[in-house]
Amino acid sequence: MRSLVLIVAAALSLSLVAPVGVGAVGAPTGPVDPAPVDAADGIVTPLGPAQQDGLNGSAVNETNVLVIPEGAVQRSGVDRATLNLGPAAEFNGNLTAVEVETAAVVEHVLAAEDDSERSRRIIQASSTVETEIITLRDRQQAAIEAYSSGRIDAETFVIELATVAARADALEQRIVRLTELADDVDGFSLSRPAEIRYELRTFGGPVRDRAVDAIRGTENATQFFVTTGTDGYELATIYDGSYHREAFRGAVRSGDSTATLSPTEAINVTRESYPELFRLGDSSATTSGSTNIVRVTAPGRSLTAFVDSGTGRVFKEYQRFGLAQYRSPSAASNTINGITVSVNRTYPGGPLRIHVENANSGEPIDLAVTLSQGQSERTTVGRTGDDGTLWTVSPRGSYTVLAVGDETTAAYLETSSTDAPSIDD
């Protein structure tokens, strides 16, 4: 988990929010291949496997993902993170407070008169960190509940998750320092330092790190998928030609701090959950107490799975894979005004490929693209560029893709997300 130092913070403009229960969660759907229908009047034409090959390849290679179960989803949306100076002071204050306190703790330990007192102070400081873990867990859950109920917006929610991650990272550095101080005391060692560090790592995530980059202004504005449920969240984004995802489900953790798994057992749990990735890459596992971290690496892909020893299930994941390697299970297309808009449909929060071309010549067209759901305000996603292609993250449920140029250049497509390839199916 890297240290998060925020210079400026973000505004996330929430405009695509799906109601509870929109979009099913289950096994991935197969390619759609009915007889094409006339799209001249705005009728959507699902594409079969052969037609998909011209868009994004014919082989479906979606990997399983950790998702909030359909019945537990409470709020879902696609939001945009961009530069905003507003919350910077609060974020920096949260991080700085922990770092200042760590310096004070170290000074307090070093000021002890003898090894016995120094050991006592180290134990006390370590216990304080364990108490802080409970506070961070409660704070994260409170943010999930607040966003789910609509009491806070996406901006506040993502910044709160980033703040929790930053504090956890700073606390892990404190444990590292306390462990070093304990090693300097003859005949004394700190109890459970590895277990504490592993627990602190469960609060991090690459997507929230990317959000911090966007709100700091060190990266361009980025589209994010956000879903919350009764027991967790999903975050996803696209940058640097790759899809990045993190998800957490608190309900599949047992809370049994005495439970253990061997590295081999943790790897086997992960293999059963993500069989596609295990066929492509190598795995490794580190275990400590009830938390096990399994990493799988393959060409252009990576997975970090957190496995709970008590339940023997994955409760958190980080995933990354290159967009060039992704093949979605189905696609749809619509032609209006001589312009064809095509999408490779994917699961809620999955990598959504949008392609715009001249219906007659097949030449790509560079147009601005927006997404909307129902009566919600349209969200600008970006432009299709010289190759006519734009990647973003898929909303949950039904949505409309609109490609716009000048007053006479516009086409749209109404479609919906597919079922998610859940690891629990």
From TrEMBL:
Residues 3-219 form the DUF7096 domain. It holds the Pfam family Fn3_arc. This is Uncharacterized protein. Residues 332-408 form the Fibronectin-III type-like domain. Residues 224-325 form the DUF7094 domain. It comes from the Archaea. The lineage of its organism: Archaea, Methanobacteriati, Methanobacteriota, Stenosarchaea group, Halobacteria. InterPro entries: DUF7094, DUF7096, Fn3_arc.
